[in-house]
Amino acid sequence: MLAGRRIAVLGDVMLDRYHRGSVSRISPEAPVPIVEVEEEVEYPGGAANVGYNLATLGVSPLLLGVVGDDAGGDYLRSLLHGLGIDAAGLVCEPGRPTTVKARVIAHGQHIVRIDRETKRAISEQTQRQLLDILSQQIATLDAVILQDYNKGVVGRALIPQVIGITQAHNVPVYVDPKSDNFFEYRGATVFKPNRKEAEDALGQRLITQAEQEDGIRQLRQQLHCGTVVLTLSADGMMLFGDEAPEPQLVPTRALQVADVSGAGDTVIATLAAARAAGATLMESVVLANHAAGVVCEQIGTVPIYHDALLQALLHDLRHPESEPIP
Length: 326
Prior knowledge:
Layout: E1 6-11, E2 13-26, E3 33-46, H1 47-57, E4 60-67, H2 71-82, E5 86-92, E6 100-106, E7 109-116, H3 124-137, E8 143-147, H4 158-168, E9 173-176, E10 190-191, H5 195-202, H6 209-223, E11 227-231, E12 237-241, E13 244-250, H7 263-276, H8 281-296, H9 306-318
Parallel strand pairs: 1-4, 1-8, 2-6, 4-5, 8-9, 9-10, 10-11
Antiparallel strand pairs: 2-3, 6-7, 11-12, 12-13
């Protein structure tokens, strides 16, 4: 059902590097562990990871973002090409570094993360290039995902223009927000914040179900959006809006959480992909919930694969008595 679907992801693309190894001694130069590296791997990160998740689900992604004229940008393009992800929408902005996040992991534990990035806003010329590419491709798209990491690509001037383009062509737009532009996404089809982002934006705690229901109502009212999907980590997800006239809680089905890195990327990709394939909103949220559970059971930023998602669904059907994680 997903074959032939095409979804654009516009946002902050990154390159994730993992240096994995073991520790057997402390450095004589400083009181820090010496990690003997046994494996070095790279993955698409940020908005690029959303595109990766779409690809592993069987969707054809179009990635729109910004890279630098540097080795990181060249490597990310090559990596995406090897994964079959259309990177024609990546714009090179001179003087801007490609966002690279390097993680050092020993015995399954994060030791340190090294970031190379800038958070300044992209230039007006770069913004125009991204919007031109989206306008040229919009008629071929089943959905658009706006993936914001506060790295300067998704700005206040760009957001309403993207939503305007999608609305003019009746293409749904899904939003994974961050704090800087939280209330700028008015008119989005689906708005998917996590609990902390929503708490910070509203200035209130969302711990109890009553607090969550109140918060999700406020968000939809202020954003004038179709649906709000609030992710609640171990508590699952809550949705309210189109097809859900009252807030509905979907408990998580994850069994063992090893690493939450990239789980939000998996959720927004699965939501958009399922809806593009004709699933109802509730069905899409349930699928996204299962997908997040699968990736959280693995170390590092990993995508959801179609077969792994199917296995998780079948397991849940066969073992309905399985308890959510505490």
